[in-house]
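agent> Task received from the user: take the single chain below, predict its 3D structure, and emit structure tokens. No templates, no multimer pairing.
agent> Plan: (1) validate residues, (2) run structure prediction, (3) serialize to tokens, (4) report one or two observations.
agent> Step 1 OK, no nonstandard residues flagged.
tool_call: predict_structure(input=
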Amino acid sequence: MKQARHPEPDEITLMEVMGALNDPIRVGLVRVLSDGREHGWGELRVPVAKSTLSHHLRVLRAAGVTRTRQEGTRCYVELRRGDLDDRFPGLLNAVLGAADRDDIGAHVGLAADDADA
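)
tool_result: status=success, residues=117
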């Protein structure tokens, strides 16, 4: 299976990152992934079709916000916090703080959250 291309840290641009973060679903995904863990796509709970989730994850990956890893038929995703913090210090914390304050992307979660409810 073909591996996805990830931009190198010096290829990540502010315009691409900001463009990727202009959607509440993608901001919600970043909020979920900000726990610092890698998550399987099947763990993500998003109120959209799987094909739309795939699109949102592809946009985040192409912008350098996330890293995707494929293992057999399963895909895993993690936030590239270190690369983003090195490239744009404080940006991710500002975005996450504003998203939390304004409740942006709160409708995105993990399957484990469903079990707790």
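agent> Step 4: summary for the user.
The longest strand covers residues 66-71.
agent> Done.
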